[in-house]
Amino acid sequence: MKIGIIGCGNIGRVVIRAVFEGVVDCEVVCVFDADRRGFEKLPKEVISCLLFTDKFDFFIMQDMDIVVEAASQEAVREFSAFVLGGGKDMMIMSVGALVDAGFRGQLVGLAKEKKVKIYIPSGAIAGIDGLKSAMSAGVGGVVLTTSKPPSSLGVDTKTKRIIYDGYAEEAVRLFPKNVNVSATLALAGVGFEKTRVKIIADPNLKENVHEVVVRGDFGTFSVRVENVPSPDNPKTSYLAALSAIATLKKITSPLQIGT
Ligand SMILES: NC(=O)c1ccc[n+]([C@@H]2O[C@H](COP(=O)([O-])OP(=O)(O)OC[C@H]3O[C@@H](n4cnc5c(N)ncnc54)[C@H](O)[C@@H]3O)[C@@H](O)[C@H]2O)c1
């Protein structure tokens, strides 16, 4: 499978390295980034084999089966229609861009018309597989509890404290740094209005912890992820970058495991 990458930051580089190490059976045809500095952080032997551009018009002309967006919400808004409209599948990491129902509807409509797919990896959380299965019957409740060190929430507290308890629709606006996780969970399950989000400032934590609890006709499951940061971007959980690789592996594999 021929892939193109929008955004050669932390996630983009993790994906490119995985392709070069043969972890996933793809060929990186072209890398597009407005800033070349991230690309320069790749090993020299990788750089010498790759086509880089800072011009989207050049990028989109390349022969690619799928474009992996690992850049920003702005990039999703700016480029997705050209990718899907050009008959290419797209993987979106900056899921926050899809909170806007009108924009999301446009992209899904375009994908349908062009017979291409939009892939949203699980990102920094686990349990999306179980939630998707559960959705075929009744789901009574989906709760995401995100606990972070107070400094990363801009809060000063010596004790563990709930700083937000509400629903994803509001949480994505009040806590934009948490938007990808809340949005992925809401899109996979009961939507932004019904997905409950709790945010906890915990001075005992060094890393982010996401817990997902789902109740439904199937029973109950809860899953807790203690994330470590990515090798060169502490703001991005390593699991999120790995979920992009896992999605490419799933697309290319004849054996499909999990929902
Ligand atoms: N789905 C998830 O769970 C999840 C988890 C972590 C991060 N993310 C999202 O994935 C995206 C990438 O994360 P990262 O850690 O690799 O970020 P990063 O900051 O390390 O890299 C982003 C790269 O994209 C480039 N870029 C940004 N906007 C661009 C544009 N409009 N045109 C061209 N290039 C552009 C930047 O120059 C940079 O090199 C972010 O939007 C982040 O919020 C999603």
Notes on the protein architecture:
With 259 residues, the chain is an alpha/beta fold. It has 2 domains: 2-123 and 237-252, NAD(P)-binding Rossmann-like Domain (Rossmann fold, 3-Layer(aba) Sandwich); 128-226, Dihydrodipicolinate Reductase, domain 2 (2-Layer Sandwich). It has 10 helices and 13 strands. A 6-stranded parallel sheet has the order 3-2-1-4-5-6, with helices on both faces. A 5-stranded mixed sheet has the order 8-9-7-10-11. The two termini are 22 Å apart. The structure holds nicotinamide-adenine-dinucleotide.
Spell out the blueprint of helices and strands.
Blueprint lengths: L1 E5 L3 H11 L6 E6 L4 H4 L3 H4 L4 E2 L2 H5 L5 E4 L3 H13 L3 E4 L8 H14 L3 E2 L8 H7 L4 E10 L12 E7 H7 L4 H10 L6 E7 L7 E8 L2 E8 L2 E2 L2 E5 H15 L7
Parallel strand pairs: 1-2, 1-4, 2-3, 4-5, 5-6, 7-9
Antiparallel strand pairs: 7-10, 8-9, 10-11, 12-13
Bound molecules: nicotinamide-adenine-dinucleotide.
The site of nicotinamide-adenine-dinucleotide has 28 residues, from helix 1, helix 5, helix 9 and strand 13.
Question: Quick summary of this structure?
Answer:
The chain has 259 residues and is α/β, with parallel strands linked by helices. Helices cover 35% and strands 27% of the residues. The chain is built from ten helices and 13 strands.
**Estimated structural class:** alpha/beta
CATH superfamily of the largest domain: NAD(P)-binding Rossmann-like Domain
User: Which second-level CATH architecture of the largest domain applies?
Assistant: 3-Layer(aba) Sandwich
CATH class of the largest domain: Alpha Beta
Instruction: Provide the succession of SSEs.
Output: EHEHHEHEHEHEHEEHHEEEEEH
- Give the assembly state of these chains: single chain
Please give the domain count: 2
Report the uncertain regions.
none
CATH-derived topology of the largest domain: Rossmann fold
Beta-strand content bin: 25-35%
Terminal-residue CA separation: 22 Å
Range of helix content: 25-40%
Rounded radius of gyration (Å): 19 Å
Major β-sheet profile: 6 strands, parallel
Q: How many alpha or pi helices?
A: 10
Strand arrangement across the biggest beta sheet: 3-2-1-4-5-6
Shape: globular
Kindly state the number of beta strands: 13
Mean pLDDT: 96
